[in-house]
Design goal:
The structure is a single chain. With 309 residues, this protein is α+β, with helices and mostly antiparallel strands. The chain has two domains: 162 residues, Ribosomal Protein S5, domain 2; 129 residues, 2-Layer Sandwich (Alpha-Beta Plaits). The chain is built from ten helices and nine strands. Helix 4 packs across helix 5 and helix 7 runs antiparallel to helix 8. The longest helix is centred in the last third of the chain and has 24 residues. The chain is globular, with a radius of gyration of 19 Å. The termini are far apart.
Length: 309
């Protein structure tokens, strides 16, 4: 048995803000992917994945039946026969490793599933998001459901607010464009749950809440609008502001050795960095109007281009 491939995702804008109803924009990233397999692989990774799937299967037994029903018997049989999730998606990197797994399990074992081929109304998207949120909570304690949604549908998703999401088109990439969105590997695995609880702790302070509403969300929303409209000039102005706000108010989410590089980008305008997912490690997202210039400035790091302007 080999299931279909599910891709990783990148939340271009909206990390943390979407918890408090900012806009967000999430795109599939096909460089990494994963699939369910049952081919007798006895490697350590396959065995660990199989153990994790056993725990996940028993968690899904107790999921709200009114929300989603699974063929638990078939899932249990497959897991007992050695099924695992074969994935190239790095874990703890903010590119949706658990999201792809959740999408694969839903695709294979859910009864009455909403399929990608249907006319995806807002109601259906919200229902899927709700199902995926309940499923992915097994991995993160609290999940928006957006990562699996992106992975399952494999199309860009625009988050207008918690209850208003839609599939969207993004401007076509310019293969010869100088500008780029890129990933930097921090070399550290990030843990989502502690970062989110730190954020929730900060939310108890009025000053932090005001900053989030009046600065962070304002510039996040503007970045999403600029990106979708293809207004590059305004996009970089707002991304610079966002990068500053994150450096000033989300420092614990930025790995220590990147604080200087982060500031250097803002000071020189060679690139602007932002969190990719919850931070604390994993990937860092970069935006630049001149990729060659950014590459020189960040020559000690390996950059992966995600999108060309």
């Amino acid at each position: 048995m080999k299931g279909p491939l599910f891709y990783s995702k990148i939340l271009l804008f909206g990390e943390y803000g979407i918890i408090k109803d900012s806009k967000g924009l999430s795109i599939p990233y096909s460089f990494y992917n994963g699939a369910l397999k049952n081919d007798g692989n006895a490697s350590e990774a396959a065995l660990n994945s199989n153990q994790s799937l056993k725990r996940f299967a028993s968690y899904l037994k107790d999921i709200d039946q009114d929300l989603v029903r699974f063929d638990i018997d078939k899932l249990t049989d497959d897991v007992n026969a050695g099924m695992y999730f074969d994935s190239s998606i790095p874990q703890g990197y903010g590119v949706g490793s658990s999201g792809a797994l959740v999408a694969a399990i839903y695709d294979q074992y859910a009864f009455d599933k909403i399929t990608v081929l249907e006319n995806l109304t807002r109601e259906k998207l919200l229902k899927l998001k709700q199902i995926f949120s309940a499923m992915e909570s097994f991995f993160h304690g609290k999940s928006s459901g957006l990562d699996p949604l992106n992975s399952y549908l494999s199309i860009p998703i625009l988050i207008n607010s918690k209850d208003n999401i839609e599939a969207t088109g993004i401007p076509a990439q310019q293969s010869d464009g100088k500008g780029a969105v890129f990933l930097i590997d921090s070399g550290i695995i990030g843990e989502t749950a502690p970062m989110v609880s730190l954020f929730m702790e900060n939310m108890k302070q009025e000053g932090f809440r005001n900053m989030l509403k009046n600065q962070f969300i304002k510039h996040t929303d503007a970045c999403v609008d600029d990106f979708l409209k293809g207004d590059i000039k305004s996009l970089f102005k707002n991304t610079k502001q966002l990068s500053k706000i994150v450096l000033n108010h989300f420092k614990p989410m930025i790995p220590q050795q990147f604080h200087e590089l982060w500031k250097k980008g803002i000071d020189t305008n060679a690139y602007y960095l932002k969190l990719c997912g919850s931070g604390g490690g994993g990937y860092i997202l970069g935006f630049t109007e001149d990729f060659e210039k950014a590459k020189k400035a960040l020559s000690a790091h390996k950059l992966e281009v995600v999108y060309n302007f």
